[in-house]
Amino acid sequence: MKIYETQGFPNPARIRIALAEKGLLDRAEFIQVNVPEGEHQTDAFRAKNPFAAVPVLELDDGTCISECSAITEYLDHLDSAPTLTGTTAKERAQIAMMQRRAEAGLLDAVATYFHHATPGLGAEIEGYQCAEWGSHQKDAALKGMQYLDGVLAQQPWVAGEAFSVADITTFAGLAFAGFAKIDVPQDCANLLAWQDRMAQRPSVAALG
How confident is the model at residue 80 (pLDDT cuts 50, 70, 90)? Predict the structure, then answer.
């Protein structure tokens, strides 16, 4: 299988972590897409993902799957252990819920701030920007951090007692926040301690 990515970007990092956690890195061929130069907007790439975003998983039969949650779902069903998306109906629902909360309330909020309230990837790539909306989303990201801190005060991992895709998404969101110069509030001690634990996982440390 092929992974089209821009190495160092937050969403491709999510898939690299998932592959490492599943022990599947050696089964993937990584193909770099030069997003800053607009390669993701070409007809060739849009044929793989009409929404012109990385990452994209291309299977050996030519099937292309985009969206991190969908790619992770596919990877999780290649074998049974370790699971990132849960096994029982309750686990799967709780993990899906927390993964979406981490995505919408943190990662997506940081991305909106970056693309609207900062120079982002440059005027040619960004196009329309609304600084007011971007600044509002920075506040949303900070609220998301406070929420996740409260969650982690009650349990060791974002979705409960076990590591899951929700932790991967949260870590990517915090990494993107750091890149965008949005600091985690110092009173979020649980979130900061969790971030330190995450950074020590081999799958994360391998990102460099």
Answer: low
What is the pLDDT, as a whole number, of residue 186? 96
3 state SS of 73:
helix
How many angstroms separate the Cα of 175 from the Cα of each of 74, 93, 198? 24, 25, 11
Structure tokens given for 186: 């110092």
pTM: 0.95
Rounded to a whole number of angstroms, the CA Rg of the chain reads 17
- CA distances (Å), 12 to each of 20, 57, 183, in order? 12, 10, 22
Residue 82, pLDDT above cutoff 90? no
Domains of the chain: 2-76 (3.40.30.10), 89-205 (1.20.1050.10)
CB 166 within 8 A of CB 95: yes
Q: Is the pLDDT of residue 161 over 70?
A: yes
Do residues 102 and 173 make contact, with C-beta atoms less than 8 angstroms apart?
yes
Report the interhelical angle of 131-152 vs 189-199 (nearest 10°).
Answer: 90
